[in-house]
What does this fold into?
Amino acid sequence: MSLVSTIRGCARTVYLRQQPIRTLSTSGTLLRDGSESSWLSKLLVRKIEPTKESHSRMLSDKYDIYELHTHNIRPDSVGQYLKNYKNTVQIIQSKQNLSMELIGSWNVEVGDLDQCLHLWRYTGGFEMVDQAKRELTNDKSYVQLMQERGTFLRSRHLQYLLAFSYWPQLKLREGKNIYEIRSYRLKPGTMIEWGNNWARAINYRQNNNEAFAGYFSQIGRLYNVHHIWCYKDLQGRKETRESAWRSPGWDECVAYTVPLIREMHCRILAPTEFSPTQ
It folds into this structure.
């Protein structure tokens, strides 16, 4: 092949069809004060100033400790397990010197099936937790039920929690209800930011008295948050949540909190027959 033909072949021009390039716009609207607000700015985590006060004292003003038990039950042993736990509750309730009370016991109906949650409250802090442990470990009937319960379980998990100070006062419910527990695992160091935003956000979620309890973990899996909501049924849940999205300001609270979350999941709960809250 000659040098001339080679040059001619290389000189052939290939025309490419130009494709439009997609770009992400971060421009926003101009506010009355002249500052610009964009949707992207809402996703940025605001800086929390250093403080010498513990996060627990800043987020909770109560001395009550909440104990959340998560029990994963063998599918063939759910009935035996519930009978066992009901007897355990009766033993604890018979001890008048213990400053602990059962708030709620639930079966998971949607989410992690063959699972039960039990929420206890200790009035008086960890001192009352220690006292209850000493008392119950010396009760032979209680210990026997604990040992028997182990044969019904696949696994279990325990957390000690504190209640958020901005959450409405806990009130036990009556009648037929369902509950939803929404659990969040936050990025370490963002708990104060979460509390700042939810102190505003909770105001948008009180129209139908759905806010039952809100907690953050102290011992166990850390940087965990649990919000518990109460509804009449799944349709009521749907309508209540849609109503919140129609409220001006709710979308902004959600936008601020989403970047703080590493993992989240929800479970629909049904109270057991011996649950104080129904």
